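User: Here's a structure from my thesis project, written as structure tokens. My advisor, Dr. K., wants to see whether a designed sequence matches the one we expressed. Can you design one independently, without my sequence as a hint?
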């Protein structure tokens, strides 16, 4: 095979006189180039027409597979932790039940006021007043605020506050004011106290 001769024929070829109908008489190297060019264009066309859509479908399938695997791992982790979560929910429900038992019902508010009065008397305090305010409804509970004003010495007032905080029913203490009582050597405690009633979805007390 004379490559130098073929190269010389290509260089001396008048490209303007080429006729596709006479392609059989072209130099074999030109025929080879044209065949390769046709094969390349055919390959590119087939790839664009057939392979490109399949490649897009494959990329979409791979992306969907990754998402499904991520969801599977997430759900598998949730399933593995389900017994622990159930135990935690049961523990929270038990604690909530205990806390609800510490909240007075509407009928127990007078008894709670009596207990606060007894705590003041036990600590030898003088009760000026214990006065209920209007209840305030929240989403899950009802606030029952009341004003307390008592008189006595510093230590007995401190014992009284500790006694109120230690009552079986929940009572929170707010807005303390402590001032001396003129000429008596005593202090006057004024504060806002609040207890709470559980309010289930029905809007009524959970316990009678």
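Assistant: Designed independently from the structure alone:
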């Amino acid at each position: 095979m004379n490559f130098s001769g073929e190269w010389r024929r290509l260089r001396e070829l008048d490209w303007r006189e080429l006729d596709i109908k006479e392609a059989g008489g072209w130099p074999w190297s030109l025929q080879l180039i044209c065949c390769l060019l046709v094969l390349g264009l055919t390959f590119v066309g087939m790839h664009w027409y057939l392979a490109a859509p399949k490649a897009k479908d494959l990329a979409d399938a791979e992306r969907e597979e990754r998402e499904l695997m991520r969801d599977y791992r997430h759900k598998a982790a949730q399933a593995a932790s389900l017994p622990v979560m159930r135990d935690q929910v049961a523990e929270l429900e038990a604690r909530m039940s205990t806390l609800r038992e510490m909240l007075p019902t509407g009928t127990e508010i007078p008894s709670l006021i009596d207990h606060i009065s007894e705590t003041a008397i036990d600590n030898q305090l003088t009760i000026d007043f214990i006065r209920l305010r209007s209840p305030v409804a929240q989403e899950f509970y009802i606030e029952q605020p009341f004003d307390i004003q008592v008189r006595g010495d510093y230590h007995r007032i401190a014992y009284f506050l500790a006694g109120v905080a230690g009552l079986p029913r929940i009572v929170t203490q707010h807005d303390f004011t402590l001032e001396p009582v003129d000429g008596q050597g005593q202090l006057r405690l004024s504060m806002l106290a609040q207890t709470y009633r559980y309010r289930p979805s029905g809007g009524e007390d959970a316990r009678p």
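When you compare it with your expressed construct, this may help: Helices lie at 3-12, 28-101, 109-122, 154-165.
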